[in-house]
Amino acid sequence: MFTPTWQSKLEDTFLWIGGWRLTLAIHLLYSKSGIQFEAKIGDLIRGLTTGGDLGELAPNQIKRIDRLQRKTIREERVLSDKLAKQQESVADR
């Protein structure tokens, strides 16, 4: 999981409970790159180079993002399952 080194575990927990997930950041990356790609599609078709933004991600970069997303989804599911079990055990008390 990507977390800043200056952030405490408690802050990480609040972000997790609040719904912030790395997969959300990846979705934002895909959305932003798609928007930028669509805006420059005409220039790309004409063979013009544009100013290196997210719309110009190379295929290998997209594959690496996809692998990261798949791995992150698996790890988030594990964490969510652990949290659900913890909540159940607290509720049973």
TrEMBL record:
MF terms in GO: sequence-specific DNA binding
Organism: Helianthus annuus
Protein name (record): Transcription factor TGA like domain-containing protein
PROSITE patterns: DOG1
GO biological process: DNA-templated transcription
Domain DOG1, chain residue ranges per copy: 1-93
Signal peptide limits: none
